[in-house]
Amino acid sequence: MALQKLSVAWAFIRTLCLIMWTSVRDWLKPSEKDLTEEVILITGGGRGIGRSLALQFAQKQPKHIILWERNETALSNTAKDVQKLGVNCSFMLCDVSSKDQVYAMAKEVQAKFGHVTILVNNAGVVNPGSFLTNEKFEQTLHTNTFAHFWTTRAFLPSMIELNRGHIVTVSSMLGLAGLNRVVDYCTSKFAATGFSEALNLELRDIGVTGVNITTVHPYLVDNAMFAGATTRFPSLFPPVPEEYLSEKILAAVLSNRSVLCVPRLMYFVVLFYCIAPVSAVLAVMKFLQVNKTIDHLHSEQRSGESSHLAKRPSS
What we know:
The protein is α/β, with parallel strands linked by helices.
């Protein structure tokens, strides 16, 4: 019994030390890994966060950047902008909600460009509405969740073989705390969060130490996908600019950070959500009018990808 108590006490002390060390490390500038030999694939890479991430990664001069999306014009424009920075960049039309397309495109990527060593699962859609009447629930899950399974299954084996790689899951604060009128979106992001965290543990359990996982939880992002969404005090809680978010994601990748909430205030929001009574959480949400965040989301901008879908890849 005494030994068990000692073990629990030691585990508690070790946890506190790790928390303190992580906090100090985050405030200091950690050593950054070199990306010059990395092959990076970004889903939803033509617009929004994906485009911004491509330009951020390009500043580190990786070996190659590959963009997947369904809008050829957006892909082409982003690829050209990346190439202007002196980085090889290719693109492929791919609907990540289709398992067959993902696997087919993955084979083509590996044949043309070799092993993907950094995978950014970014593509996403949002279809707000009542849970009882929303007809796009499955589409949301396929794009925001299942696509992560398929891309990871396609590219993770080679990362494990090399014991080198990084997978970035762009989740959401709505993958940690639910919100009305986007039940499907919250479900998909909670699932993506759980997938990312569990996969990280599974890799460590089988002894894979060179493949890192980063789960990103951004607050409301200032882009077309969430245009019109707001809260009661937008000056106090402004949307996150895409460029700022992508800078933070790049920094997290360079330092092998496992979890990233943007902005930093969101860590305290998560803590409050976890420890406060449900009645208190609901009262705060009502006061801040969080429950009305989605009410004015522009209908024509609810999707992170356009309806244009080509059957053949292009690069």
